[in-house]
Amino acid sequence: MKKRIIIFNISFWLALLTIILIPGKVPTEGASRIEYGFPFRFFIQYQSTEWFIQGVGIQLLYYFFDVFIIYGLIYACLHLWNRLKPITKESASTIVLNGGNNKG
């Protein structure tokens, strides 16, 4: 259970870091704005004001979609990594010889 919480925490922060790391998208129609986030654009900065916080819109539903998508990708990659990781001869013989108990 702790591994899932750690993965969720990492995906939470990675979704926030997409605002800084991935370039924003400037739509041509509508109000002058820049949209940040990946794969869903959840952070919108409107260009009508000079103040940073005043012209910001945050769509939490899209943010949580991003978090769950990143969580799923990390969890799937770790699951595949653990399944495809080769078993060394020493660990395989230990499992076979004493049933997985390492009591020397």
What's the arrangement of secondary structure elements?
Layout lengths: L1 H20 L11 E4 L6 E4 L9 E3 L1 H25 L4 H10 L6
Helix pairs in contact: 1-2
Tally of separate helices: 3
What would you call the shape?
Answer: elongated
- The order of strands across the largest sheet is 1-2-3
Secondary-structure element order, as H and E? HEEEHH
For the biggest sheet, the summary is: 3 strands, antiparallel
What would you call the structural class?
A: mainly alpha
Bin the helical content. 40-55%
Poorly predicted runs of 5 or more residues: none
Mean pLDDT, to the nearest integer, reads: 78
Distance between the termini: 30 Å
Number of domains: 1
Determine the oligomeric state from the structure: single chain
Strand content: 5-15%
Instruction: Please give the radius of gyration in angstroms.
Output: 22 Å
Strand runs, count = 3
